[in-house]
């Protein structure tokens, strides 16, 4: 299932994730922000269970911000899993 998430409080603007029926991330595209870091994050998470990424990335902060792109990805994945469960 492809899910589009509008980020909040970070440089990136939008995240598109594709999570299969087993909760495995098939693709991840993050628009805006720091290109190299976000491309790296996208490549790291492919093939991982969404729940594992949520657990590892949740609460990560960027400088003085209360969130970060990895943290926002955890929220995107959480919403994608909830939408798939409906």
From TrEMBL:
Transmembrane segments: none annotated. Its EC number is 1.17.4.1. It catalyses: a 2'-deoxyribonucleoside 5'-diphosphate + [thioredoxin]-disulfide + H2O = a ribonucleoside 5'-diphosphate + [thioredoxin]-dithiol. It is an enzyme of class 1 (oxidoreductase). Keywords: DNA synthesis, Nucleotide-binding. Pfam families: TSCPD (PF12637). Residues 5-81 form the TSCPD domain. It comes from the Bacteria. Belongs to the ribonucleoside diphosphate reductase class-2 family. This is ribonucleoside-diphosphate reductase. It comes from Hydrogenoanaerobacterium saccharovorans.
């Amino acid at each position: 299932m492809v899910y589009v998430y509008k980020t909040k409080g970070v440089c990136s603007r939008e995240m598109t994730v594709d999570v299969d029926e087993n909760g495995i991330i098939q693709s991840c595209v993050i628009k805006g922000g720091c290109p190299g870091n976000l491309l790296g994050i996208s490549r790291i998470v492919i093939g991982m269970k969404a729940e594992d990424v949520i657990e590892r990335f949740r609460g990560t902060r960027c400088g003085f911000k209360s969130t970060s792109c990895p943290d926002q990805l955890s929220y995107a994945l959480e919403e994608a899993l909830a939408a798939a469960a409906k």
